[in-house]
Amino acid sequence: MWTRHHKQRNTGRLIVPAITIVFLSYFGFHAYHGEYGINSKYRADERIVELKRKLERTTEDRKELERRVQLLHDGTIEKDMLDEYARRALDYSQPGELTIMRPAS
Asked: Where would I find the beta strands (DSSP E) of 2-87?
């Protein structure tokens, strides 16, 4: 009578931990790098700071434009403002004048 002896293998014990490690790695990676992950929170915070700076600059520009418009709307137009706008619109200068055009800042 023949008897078969099977060697006991340890591979069965490693399947569940291996699958667990794969799942934890997958979800851990996406928790950090995903669209709503930890890394995206830091990028969003940096974007908020950048946009706040841009808002401050835009607000300052708007206040400057409002100040310049107020000089034109108070009933009496200042001669310097009228002269500046007319020269810029008509591209006009006196014969003895030197005109230096600077780009708008």
From this structure: none
In terms of residue numbers, what domain contains 77? 21-90
Locus of tokens 């069965």: 12
- Does the residue 50 lie in any domain? yes
Q: Which residues touch 33 (CB under 8 Å, ≥6 apart)?
A: 39
- With CA atoms as reference, report the closest residue to 38 among 24, 27, 22: 27
Is 98 a member of any domain?
no
> Is 9 within a domain?
no
pTM score, two decimals? 0.51
Q: Count up the domains in the chain and report the number.
A: 1
Q: How far apart are CA 92 and CA 94, in angstroms?
A: 7
Q: Does 46 reside within a domain?
A: yes
One-letter amino acid for residue 56 of the chain: E
Q: How many CA atoms lie within 13 A of 89 on its CB side?
A: 6
> Residue range 22-36: average pLDDT?
92
Contact 81, 71 (CB under 8 A): yes
